[in-house]
Write the structure tokens for this entry.
Amino acid sequence: MSRDNVFVTRPYLPPLAEVLPYLEQIWQSHQLTNSGPFHQEFEVELARYLGVDHVSLFANGTLALLTALQAERVSGEVVTTPYSFVATAHSLLWNGIKPVFVDVDPVTFNLDPSKIEAAITPQTTAILPVHVYGCPCDINAIQTIADTYGLKVIYDAAHAFAVEDDGGSILRHGDLSILSFHATKVFTTFEGGAIVSPDAKTKRRIDFLKNFGFADELTVVAPGINGKMNEIQSAIGLVQLKHVESVLLERAAIDARYRTMLNGIEGITIPVQPRSRRHNFSYFPILVDSSYPVSRDGVFDLLRSHGIFARRYFYPLISEFPMYRALPSAKASNLSEAHRLASRVICLPIYPGLADSVIHKIGELLRA
Ligand code: T4K
């Protein structure tokens, strides 16, 4: 293996020659943003690829989350997970909403539905679950609770691009789902995101909200934000769509290779493959148990010393950050499974082009 550093992920970039004709068109037309032709085409093509009816493109996933909460008029308290990237809970604080953390399921890493009801109060208006690592949440259980208590469900599906269950795209569930196309994601437009809506009326409202609230040149219907994806991002998205299937295949092969290499190592747990009809292999988490001779952080440092920059997604838990830790629901005793996972997890490198020698080396290091 070369001594070049290896990171947890490396964005897939399509051949530059395929992007240049799009850039030339942008340079000729001078249409740079505000729902230009590539933006319109990408929305249609992306919806077709994902198998959903209505997509609204965004400049990034965080703006999509902020806008989704506005679009559904979510307020008061929202039940969510501490085991995610901070943007999930930050989107609530930015909307003046109080996050209420609920513990996660130790197998799926996702919100544990059996613990949601106890966290609901008269102020609760929604549930914000995350399909962590692209592993689908227990959608039926969450929807049943939401229906019983009259709550909205907004899925943070930032990790769940192209994931499907038996009925089709995982993104069709809940009131809205949001995606991220950040550089570190399976599908990237450098920065980018989207909201998947169930109907044209909701999409229309979201499209107003992401454009300052403008309904037409003279009419502003809501205090909207600037969440628009630009023409370069949209063009890159169009080119990326041509390659995404081979990217997913390559990720699946790396996942399988890791499973073989790491199989049977005492003290290293590999989470079970999600039962979804189609998985996206966006992350490769492993758990370092107390029976393993080295601590999780010891493994992290060992890999680092060999130039392998794995990541402890998601440690610390969101509930541990200063703006959240005073919340009653942030108490460690309320989130014991999330704490156990956060103290054991390491996400290993997974991306197209990852050399087999790196996987082999990681296997050897962990076995030794
Ligand atoms: N909800 C969830 C559940 C999320 O995970 C995220 C984002 C969001 C919402 C918000 O979506 P966005 O607003 O971001 O669209 C990264 C990303 O910045 C973040 O997008 C992502 N989740 C989160 C899980 O990871 P960092 O701080 O770990 O990224 P960074 O810069 O340390 O990158 C990790 C490694 O990736 C680097 O060591 C090298 C490699 N890399 C990174 C970049 C940016 C590249 O090779 N090229 C690059 O351009 O947060």
The chain is about 35% helix and 15% strand. The chain has two domains: 16-103+111-241, 244-367.
